[in-house]
Give the backbone structure.
Amino acid sequence: MSGMELLHQALSDFLLQENIQGRLVLSPELGNIRAALYQMGAVNNEETGAAGECFLDILLSKQDFARIQKKFSVELVLESSELLESADDHTMSASNA
């Protein structure tokens, strides 16, 4: 495969994946998860609460969200979220459960 074909395949794979967008609240003890999300380029905005908690607006693939939870053995719940289908630019609501 040529470089252009590989690039086309990578872009196609990215555009066909489902992405999660929402607000995640992390306590100060979960700074390692915050750092991992920043390293992935998933954090769009951050605010800090009075008790030191982080309010992160994130955008990442559904698969990466699952990997983060597995890696750190936690269940993360988004305050508000959307499941974005990149292939047809159609937005669906996702469950927060």
